[in-house]
Amino acid sequence: MKKSVLSLLCLAAFPAFAADLPPEIEAMKAITNAPLVKESEAGVDMESANDTKLRSGPYEYNVQMTGDRRKDEALRQTLSEWSIQLARPIRLPGKAALDREIGEKGISTAEIARGDSLHESAKSLLHLWFTWMREKLQETEWKNQVKLLSEEVAVVEKRVRAGDAPRLELNLARAAADQAKFAELQAEMRESVAARNLTVNYPEIALPEKPDPSNPTPVSESLDYWKGKILASNHAIRLAKSQAERALLLSRRSREDQIPDPTIGVNYSSEYGGSQKVVGGLISFPLPGDFRKAGAKSAAAAAEMALQREVDVRRKTEANISSNYIMAKASYNGWEKSREAADGMIRNAHLVSVAYALGEASLSDLLTARRLSIESQLASRLAQVDALETRYRLMVDAHMLWDYDEGKNTRQQ
Predict the structure, then answer these.
(1) What are the residue boundaries of the structural domains of the chain, listed by start?
(2) What is the dotted CATH code of the domain comprising 5-407?
(3) How far is the C-alpha of 326 from the C-alpha of 348, rounded, in Å?
C-alpha cells in the first residue's frame, strides 16, 4: 500500500518513527486482518444483501388452485369444477422509495463501521505494543541492575577478605542483589504475558530482541489543531450519525406501514363441467390495528435513542481528545523531569560506589544510592514510553499514523 502524503510528512517529522513502532507492513497486515475488522467486512456483505432484499420487497406471488365435484340432482350427473388464482401484495410507492434509501444507508453505515473497526484495531495494536515495550524495558533495566549489584557484591567480598568490612555488609549486599534478581524475574513474567497478549491478538507482529525507543517529541500544536484533525476523520461520530439517520428512515418507514399494503390478483375458474368459464379479479386491504401503531411508536423511540447516542458519542469524543492532548503534554514534561532526576541519581550512585570502594562511604549509603538510582531510571523509562504512546495515540486518532484508511474499499485476500 502506498503511503499517503500526510504519512510521509509524519515520517519526516518523526525520524525515529520506526524505532518506536512495529514495521509498517507488519502493522498494516495486523490491523486489517484483525477479527474485529473481518467481522465488519462481513457486515458490509450482509448490508449489501439486505439492500437487495429491500429493493425486491418482502412480497411474492401466491398461486392458489382448487378442485371441486358438483353433483346436480336435476341433471342426475356429477360435474368437475376447478379454479386458479394468482395474487400478490403490492408495496405502495412511498414505501418502496424508503426501502431503497434504508438499504443504501445500511451499506454506507456498514462501510463506516468497517473504518471504525480499523481505527479500533490500530488503537488496540498501539496499546498492546507499548504495554509490551514498558515491560520489556523494565526487564532490561532490572537485568542491568542485577549486573551492577553483582559487581557491588564482588567489591564487598574483596573488602571482607581484606578485613576492611564486616561480613554483615556482605550479607546486606547479597540481599540487595537477590532482591534485584527477584524483581528481574517478575519483570520477565510480566514481559512474557504482555508479549503473549500482543502476538496472540496480532500474530503478524514480530517482537524485536531489544526495543530502542527514541526520545519523545513535544506536542507543540494547539488543542484546536488536534480537535480539527481528529474530528474531521472520526469514524465513531460518523457511525453514530449514520446510524441515527438510518433510524430516522426506519421510523418514517414504520409510520408509512400504518397504511397496509393491498393485495391484488386475478382468478379463473371452470364450472359445471367446463360449460361455464369465470374470470375475475380481487383486491384486499388488511385492517390496521394497535400492532402497527405500536410499531410506529417503537421505531420513533429508537430513532430518538439513536439521535441522543450521536450527541453522546460526539461529546465523549471531544472530551477524549482534550484529555489525550493534556496527557500527551503532561507526559512529555514528566519525562523531561524524570530524565533529569535519573541522570542525577545515576551520577550520585556512581560516586557513592567509588567512595565505598575507597572506604569513604558506608554500605548503607551505597545501597540507598543504588535503590534511588534504580527507581529513578525505571520511572524515567516508563515516563519515556508514556510520552511516546500518548503522542502516537493522538496521531492514530487523527489518522496520521498508518495508512489503513487508504484501502477502506479493498479487502485483504
Answers:
(1) 5-407
(2) 1.20.1600.10
(3) 33
